[in-house]
Write a structure and sequence with these properties.
Number of strands: 12
Mean pLDDT: 74
Largest sheet: 12 strands, mixed
Number of domains: 1
Distance between the termini: 19 Å
Helix content: 25-40%
Strand order of the largest sheet: 7-8-9-10-11-1-2-3-4-5-6-12
Number of helices: 8
CATH topology: outer membrane lipoprotein receptor (LolB), chain A
Low-confidence stretches: 1-31, 145-157
Strand content: 35-45%
CATH class: Mainly Beta
Radius of gyration: 18 Å
Structural class: alpha+beta
Order of helices and strands: HHEEEHEEEHHEEHHEEEEH
Length: 291
């Protein structure tokens, strides 16, 4: 039960970070940090294909949870899709799947995320096949003003504009070749509260209360981000690694995303309302539990 709670709490934390990330896009004038400039350049190309991989490690749990996937995102339309495969799941989960891995599909459209998986089959109210999270309502629940959004829904490179919004500075730590493309490796650390408070229309009092609970529950105060940028100023790779306390256990997670084939992407059609269970209300109710 403790391991399960840790994973659920971890998902909630990452969701909060993603929500804050998706509100960035702003920033002051003047010369941009190279990472912030790359974010701006990348989101202007229209769309991108991406691959993703990562892991979650929980003390006392024999298997490390790993995941990998492929997808695409359109920055101008604020939409995308991602197909994930998860391995290292507890036997209680795999026994329900009839296999050792879990498939999950995610759709991103405007300010909402839709998720579908065999694990959810016959378990959602009304026979729904998809779960939905409305990010705009979730943002409002933690003290952000949804009307201040400049970039819409969740997409991976918003982490970069998060750096810009936070006024963070990056530094070069190396040079690497990714998919045959020479890239420069930058590292930076984001103060989550500072970045959130920088948003136009943010309820700073409510934000501080939420983050005090978050920090108390997890010890998480900053977000370390590594970014690889090519000679054309395009983001080629993004890496985030976190270590936090969850229910008395030190949970570690890492996510790496690579971007390639920049250009147009296929339009996304979301499921019909009759196939969707909206979990936004439950997510909002669970925010106080972080304390």
């Amino acid at each position: 039960m403790k391991a399960r709670f840790s994973l659920i709490l971890l998902v909630a934390i990452v969701a909060i970070a993603a929500v804050l990330v998706s509100t960035s896009g702003g920033g002051g004038g003047g010369a941009l940090d190279p990472v912030a400039q790359a974010a701006q350049t990348t989101t202007q190309v229209g769309g991108v294909q991406m691959s993703l991989q990562g892991s979650v490690t929980v003390p006392g749990v024999a298997n490390q949870l790993t995941f990998s996937g492929q997808g695409s995102f359109n920055f101008k339309a604020h939409e995308g899709s991602l197909t994930l495969t998860m391995a290292g799941l507890p036997q209680s989960v795999t026994s329900q799947l009839g296999g050792t891995s879990l498939q999950m599909t995610e759709l991103f459209k405007s300010s909402s995320i839709y998720m579908s998986s065999p694990l959810l089959s016959n378990k959602l109210p009304g026979g729904a096949r998809w779960m939905k999270l409305n990010l705009a309502r979730f943002q409002q629940g933690i003290g952000l003003d949804p009307s201040s959004l400049t970039s819409g829904g969740a997409n991976p490179t918003q982490y970069l504009q998060f750096l810009k919004a936070a006024g963070a500075k990056s530094q070069i730590v190396g040079h690497e070749t990714l998919r045959g493309v020479a890239s420069t490796h930058y590292a930076a650390k984001v103060d989550l509260l500072k970045a959130a408070e920088a948003q136009a229309g943010a309820n700073r009092t409510q934000l501080r209360e939420t983050f005090q609970k978050l920090t108390s529950a997890t010890g998480l105060q900053s977000l370390p981000v590594d970014v690889w940028i090519d000679a054309h100023g395009l983001v080629r790779k993004l890496s985030v690694a976190l270590s936090m306390d969850a229910a008395g256990q030190q949970v570690k997670t890492s996510v790496q995303s690579e971007f390639y084939d920049f250009g147009p992407t296929q339009s996304i059609t979301v499921p019909a309302d009759s196939e969707v269970f909206d979990m936004t209300k439950q997510a909002l109710q669970n925010i106080p539990a972080l304390g």
